[in-house]
Design a protein that fits this description.
about 160 residues; Alpha-D-Glucose-1,6-Bisphosphate, Chain A, domain 4; seven-stranded antiparallel sheet; 3 helices; globular; START-like_dom_sf; ASHA1/2-like_C
């Protein structure tokens, strides 16, 4: 019999943005916006994506990295306070094997005219899939993608002004 294990990790990532909380929140809440930045690094192919942003709604993303393994993100939104907070619970699978279960909280706090974003994850890594920091690195990568998306969006808005 395979031994069953559960190892725990908690981490937070903080970023400061020039954009108002409503703009940063919208990058998470709008399907088109989130699709633009919430993706794994290349080489990868998105196999499945669904997005239902509401309390009780699900977001799913399946990615093929070309290594014969499908990586599945399956989230359920538990709490949404517009422009202030998002809480979601999610499972990660490799193929059919659940490797972790997490609770993620995204806080959007006014910071002058901008936003202080605090992303906190509480993760349980299952049955030998201990993480050694790769989840934190992956989350840092995604939050960096968000930063780039917000900067590009701000630049596009400036380019459109007369």
């Amino acid at each position: 019999m395979t031994p069953r294990t559960a190892s725990h990790a908690t981490f937070s990532i903080t970023r400061h943005y020039r954009q108002a909380p409503a703009t940063v929140f919208d990058a998470w809440a709008d399907e088109k916006n989130k699709t633009a930045w919430f993706a794994a690094p290349p080489p990868r192919q998105t196999v499945k994506r669904s997005f239902d942003f509401r309390v009780g709604g699900r977001e799913q993303l399946s990615t093929d990295f070309g290594d014969g393994k499908l990586h599945h993100f399956d989230a359920v939104y538990r709490d949404i306070v517009p422009d202030a907070r998002i809480i979601y619970a999610y499972d990660m699978h490799i193929n059919e094997t659940r490797i972790s279960v997490s609770l993620a909280t995204v806080d959007f706090k006014p910071d002058g005219a901008g936003t202080k974003l605090v992303f906190t994850e509480q993760a349980v890594f299952l049955d030998g899939f201990d993480d050694d920091g790769s989840r934190r690195r992956g989350s840092d990568y995604l939050i960096d993608n968000l930063t780039g998306f917000l900067e590009r969006s701000e630049g596009q808005k400036k380019d459109m002004q007369p």
